Amino acid sequence: MSPYQILAVVACFAFLYSLVASRLERTPISGAMIYVLVGVICGPECFRLVDLNIKGEGLSWLAELTLAVVLFTDSANSNLKTLRRFESLLVRLLLVGLPLTIAMGYLVGWVLFQDLGLLEIALLATMLAPTDAALGKAVVTNEAVPDSVRESLNVESGLNDGICVPVLLLFLALAGDQVEGQKEALTLAISLPLQAIGIGAAIGLGLSIPGSAALRICAERGWVAGSWLQIPVIALSIFCFALAQFLGGSGFIACFIGGMTFGALTHKHKHVVLEAAEGTGDTLALLTWFAFGTFLLAPPVLQFDWRILLYAVASLTIIRMLPVYLCLFGKHFRLDTVLFLGWFGPRGLASIVFAVMVADASLPHKDLLIATTSWTILFSVIVHGLSANPLASLYSRRVQDHDI
Question: Does position 116 have pLDDT exceeding 90, yes or no?
Fold first, then answer.
């Protein structure tokens, strides 16, 4: 299939969608839902206008760059003053809730998928552990929702992506028989997270501090203005991601730390330079959702049985919500706050990236892993998209920021 045909179809739909996007934002129908649906319709199993492969390098690049830009811009918009007031909430979600989520996902997978190996179940649990703030944007940008809840969900989704990367890489190495002996496995289990997080954080700080200073100085002197203000943030986010990945760190951690640092150092003017970057991130995200839709009805995703359905439902409910409840137990949070935080853990871009990584691995049951991950993401797009605005409005009427 000609790449120009694919490009023409995608560009045509992007143009048509942009004409009504603002109107659709006021409805329960999210952009991700529409792009996935149109991707299915245009895909090889329907009208055959677009043919993309989950194992293709192009999809991997698109998903990774999208996540990098979205993480950078979202973290740059974080309110650090609010986070400092409720940092214990975020710490518990990441250091207690995330490991519990992986453990719960492993337990449910072990019960449902008897034909999967233990490491394959661990891969599945890790692939679906990170959340996606971009998919729940209607919640994290809704000013009626208390700042502490919005910022915690936003930062949690940014950091858990990067934290899960070394865990996934470890399980991939073990499952692929790339590790010999318990000593080497233990060394890898310790070194991979430290390397991924350490290098990623160092790159994020090392690039964003001089980058933000240079942009601020040049903007004050009039050396960069107008349309040129649209480029620095996008370029800096990709620079953070690419350099961290090249040096063996987590590009996602680099982008999140870099974006947060950039936002803190350019807080007076950041909305001007971030506006265009956010638009680019949103566009890339929707294109990724379109690509995701094109292979939903194709092998290996096409396989579907009751185990996949049960795991997908469990992943969006008990696997996410019970760990959130347990990690916040005894901390005097309102029950509706705990339920709200637990429910809005949508699965999205990070899980797509992880699915592409698993698709390239040599695993006996990788088709089942990809199918389960893909259907869970699809259900998340639908149920979290439809419930975001109604539940955010209902929750905001019940609580204020001081009594969460």
Answer: yes
pTM: 0.90
Omega within 30 of 0 (cis) for the link into 210 = no
Q: Is pLDDT larger for residue 326 or for residue 229? A: 326
pLDDT tens sequence across 177-193: 655 555 666 677 678 78
pLDDT at 402 over 70: no
- Distance, in Å, from the CA atom of 110 to the CA atom of 107, rounded to the nearest integer, reads 5
Alpha helices for 144-181 (secondary structure H): 147-175
Q: Cα(85)–Cα(354) distance, rounded to whole angstroms?
A: 33
Q: Give the C-alpha separation, 329 to 116, whole Å.
A: 33
CB 273 within 8 A of CB 229: yes
In sequence order, which ranges of 331-365 are alpha helices (DSSP H)?
Answer: 335-343, 349-359
DSSP sequence for 55-68: T-HHHHHHHHHHHH
To which H or E segment does residue 326 belong?
helix 318-328
State the CB neighbour count (10 A cutoff) for residue 30: 24
